[in-house]
Design goal:
The chain is mainly alpha-helical. It contains three helices and no strands. The longest helix has 23 residues. The protein starts with a helix and ends with a helix.
């Protein structure tokens, strides 16, 4: 009775979190999410600063 309630929560936790995160969630959503956050943040910040500083 103690192994029944401990098995379902242990197998359900690492199963759904390791499948979508370590599978198609890491190589796909990780690249577009990290690149999209750095692209729009670095593009407007590097364009005005690079043209104003290195291009006086």
């Amino acid at each position: 009775m103690k192994a029944v309630p401990v098995h379902p929560p242990r197998g359900t936790n690492p199963a759904p979190q390791t499948n979508p995160i370590a599978g198609p969630s890491r190589p796909r959503p990780n690249t577009p999410v990290v690149f999209r956050r750095v692209d729009p943040d670095w593009t407007p910040d590097t364009t005005p600063w690079m043209w104003d500083n290195p291009w006086p």
